[in-house]
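Kindly review this protein for my students:
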Amino acid sequence: MPIHVHEHCLKMATREDGTPWWAAFPLPKSTVVKISPAEVLELLEQQDQEKPHDFLIVDARRSDCTGGTVTSALNLPAHSFYPTRKMLYDLCKQAGIKKIIFYCGSSNGRGPRCAAWMQDYINEVGGGDIESQVMAGGIRGWVQVYGGRMMDGYDEKAWQQQKIESG
């Protein structure tokens, strides 16, 4: 029997004792700037292959990332992200990254929470030359508009199955 998407998300949102996965971490203080999938696509299409990116895309999903990721996205699951903020910041600073774009399934939970935690850290260390954002609509919104365009590991069957299970 297949797991419905919303049941799966509920399981992902709680620990074994029933508390939310994020309860062990502080509430984010920052309000995160949203970036549209169209703006992310434009960034990807305009990147110069000769020069490094000045943006980083972070997929905050855990085991629900079947179907593919936005091209070049780094998978940093939300449940383990908070303790790694400093390392990610240091790496982005060294690489000249100006924008860190987070997303999850629909960018209603994990993606915005991680983006806010990252922005909190950036604000704490005075790293105003880096901004943390969240991609509106998440990967589902991306696939709805662009299908497999600019995706790594795109699996059309996985997206069709998700539509069936959630619909």
